[in-house]
Amino acid sequence: GAGVSQSPRYKVAKRGQDVALRCDPISGHVSLFWYQQALGQGPEFLTYFQNEAQLDKSGLPSDRFFAERPEGSVSTLKIQRTQQEDSAVYLCASSTGESPLHFGNGTRLTVT
Amino acid sequence: GQNIDQPTEMTATEGAIVQINCTYQTSGFNGLFWYQQHAGEAPTFLSYNVLDGLEEKGRFSSFLSRSKGYSYLLLKELQMKDSASYLCAVRLQGAGNNRKLIWGLGTSLAVNP
User: Fold this and answer.
1) Interface membership of A98 toward B (CB under 8 Å)
2) Which of A13, A75, B41, B73 could in theory staple to A17 by disulfide, Cβ–Cβ 3.0 to 4.6 A?
3) What mean pLDDT is predicted for residues B96-100?
């Protein structure tokens, strides 16, 4: 596709459930980022991939968060045993090298 | 620590000009980005400054002063569709591939008729 695609757009999970969020970056984009954005806040960095290598996961808030990009294209962000504080919009972005980031529309996660 | 400050909210009138300021205190600097984000949508790239001065792109212009740690986004001939959040982000020096981007909280702009 022409842009970064994320699915699902909305996800409601009961506390304790596991969720998986998908990101399909722009074809050919080497770099892929996951961000967490709370309402009225700027994006907070979670993790970064260069191709299939996860080069930085310093922003993941706990060991319940896990991300992968096994073939260097599609990426999945998994959250285990969701908690209410995990409720946020999860944004995926991709880029080529140091070009500006192209963002997807995000997945709005609500944990009840 | 790293810090970026933007006003939380601004209002302006259709057809007018508005300036959104961003000040930063960071451990390094390798460029400043402005993004626009409509509610429920993805942030979209507006401008990039790495050298001092003004970059103009249609109705939008962005200015940078590295010595003052200051940037502004200037929006001219405001339209209702410009109502959105405007995010300032600084790329830290020595961090390739956008990895170390520090984001402001965003300025919510409301354009009134």
Assistant:
1) yes
2) A13
3) 64
Residue B7 to residues A65, A83, B104, Cα–Cα distance (Å)? 32, 31, 10
Q: What is the DSSP string of A61-96?
A: -STTEEEE-TTSS-EEEEESS--GGG-EEEEEEEES
Sorting pLDDT into bands at 50, 70 and 90, what band is B98? Answer: low
Which residues make Cβ contacts (< 8 Å) with residue A55, sequence separation at least 6? Answer: A48, A49, B99
**Would you tell me how many other CB atoms lie within 10 Å of the CB of residue A21?**
20
Residue range A22-40: average pLDDT? 94
Q: pLDDT, tens digit, for every residue of A2-23?
A: 799 999 999 999 999 999 999 9
Q: Which residues of B touch A (CB under 8 A)?
A: 4, 33, 40-45, 48, 87, 89, 91, 96-99, 101, 103-106, 108
| Residue numbers in A near B87 (CB within 8 A) | 42-43
